[in-house]
Here is the input.
Amino acid sequence: MSMMKKMLFACCVLIQILAFSACKEKENSGYQVSSVSIRLVYPEGNGFEPVEGVSVTLKNTSGSTTFSQSTNAEGVAVFEVPQGIYEASAFDKRVADAKVYLFNGLNTSVNVTQETVEATIKLEMSSGGSVLIKELYVGGCPKDDGSGTFAMDQYVVLYNNSSETLDISDFALGMVNPYNPHASNKDYVNGELFYAAEGWIPAGTAVWYFDKQVQLEAGKELVIALNGAIDHTQTYSQSVNLANSAYYCLYDIEDFNNALYYPSPSELISTDHYLKAYKYGLGNAWPVSQFGPAFFVFRPEGTTLQAFVDDASTTNLYGGSASQPRKKVPAEWVVDGIEVFVQGADGNQKRLLPSVDAGYVELTRGMGYTLYRNVDKEATEALAENEGKLVYNYSLGVGNSTDASGIDAEASLKNGARIIFQDTNNSTADFHQRSKSSLRN
Here is the structure.
């Protein structure tokens, strides 16, 4: 055998040894790749069919690995991924007859343990909203002396994302009981929320409403103090100042008299800015979770809020307990909702239906972080009035949770820009953790 042939032979042997070693290493580590086909299933009778190019995401539930693929003409996305347990989600947006239709779906348990796996995502349809939850601040901040967390400074910001002034006088605030996402949840039957088939959201304890006519101009916001409508920075420097004549607040001392939650509001806030409550549960406070609320805004249709609350047929008892009555808010009444999970916790479970919020945003409590809506970059940049007013290089995200648009919404608003916020009815795509409250800018 010539020297050249010997060298070629040795190289071939070496390549085979390396390939065999790699295979054995992969085999020994348990690493195997599977082909996963995810089919999108659209609601029947809506006139919309599967199309090519819809983005589908697979996220490994045991880590942070995420894969994305687009559907083919049959509405199927095909992945090549390591075996494991995945969460699959999809979003589709269609426009017909000048109306925007949103399709969201989530499959929380795609078990990839075979070479080929087929799964589906059932999409739910909703309409694009005009009034959005721009920001939800509920996790609190560190106390100055390092002794713990102060969290009686919660607030929500509503934003008119449309181009028209809107009457929001009949809007109401609700939250789901169970209040924490990582607590046991008796609403799950055979792995699914039992009320999903009935199309309603359970509002716990009470619902809050405006006690006056309220108009919200296009591109403007409305801050509502959920507790403590005072200047908290006087006691805790890292907190927020909620004493502002433009703000609204929850304050109904006849129903909720816990002074820790509801000290007398600042004299700067007029009494006609107090939201009132229709209470039907127990307790002396409306306990918005510091860990992860399922919070929503809704508007009654075909009835009044009081008539809805007074109607015995709209009552549901959580786990059959008479001490935990809830109101069955029809999902189609919901204007906007946000599902919040505990950052890094095991056992987080969805409470809002996919038609309201198909995803979730994670929160680390006690750090002064806030949940802030992402900017719709394309729509915002398309506005001629924003020429030279947009501020970029946004840097207030927390870790990997940030606004991919790169636009600093608060700085741009102060610069006179008009911001269009993203609205896909999926908090995973629409929100991020912001390292400080927008009220502290």
